[in-house]
Amino acid sequence: MVDITEISAVVAAAGIVVGVVYYILDLRHNTRAREMEICRLVSSDYTSEQGCQRYATMMTLQWKDLNDFMQKYGVLGSNLEMFGKWASQFAAWEIMGLLLKNKIIKAEEIHELSGYVAIPAWEKYKDIIQGLRNYIYGKNMYSNAEFFAQEMLRISIEKDASFKDKLEAYIKRLKA
User: Fold this and answer.
1) pTM for this prediction
2) b/e code 27-43 from CB counts within 10 Å (16+ = b)
């Protein structure tokens, strides 16, 4: 016959197992909710009307070379408003790249929240950024933004193999 002590030990053990399972499920739920909130926060800036206008403006800037770019849009250039537009956008992508590297957010989710717009921007500005890296800021300037754009490119190609051809056509138009 089973005595009361054994029954209470089994009930206590079952209570502990249930508590641990509940804790794990709650922890997973809270982690997921935190990830979604971070995604919402980091994407809300560049998906806002102001963010879309900033992106559109930075994508219309024109320059001949690094010196021309620096005179027109550099930190000491003649148009600090335009410096603020492109630099703040790359700073936002820098943050997202860092969050991706640290596995705080998922690349696929940020891609779905318009993260893919970093791809053509990176293609347009990569020679300028490389020039700035060589000129003064070092190899780490916007390295997380570059990582972010590369991750968005990887996902875009995985989702649509024809994206690579579209990107190559875009790059040819940029260089024309």
Assistant:
1) 0.78
2) eeeeeeeebeebbeebb
CA 41 to chain centre: 12
Concatenating the DSSP letter of every residue in 56-88 gives: HHHHH---SSHHHHHHHHSTTSS-HHHHHHHHH
What's the confidence (pLDDT) of residue 1? 57
pLDDT in tens, 21-44: 877 887 887 777 777 777 677 777
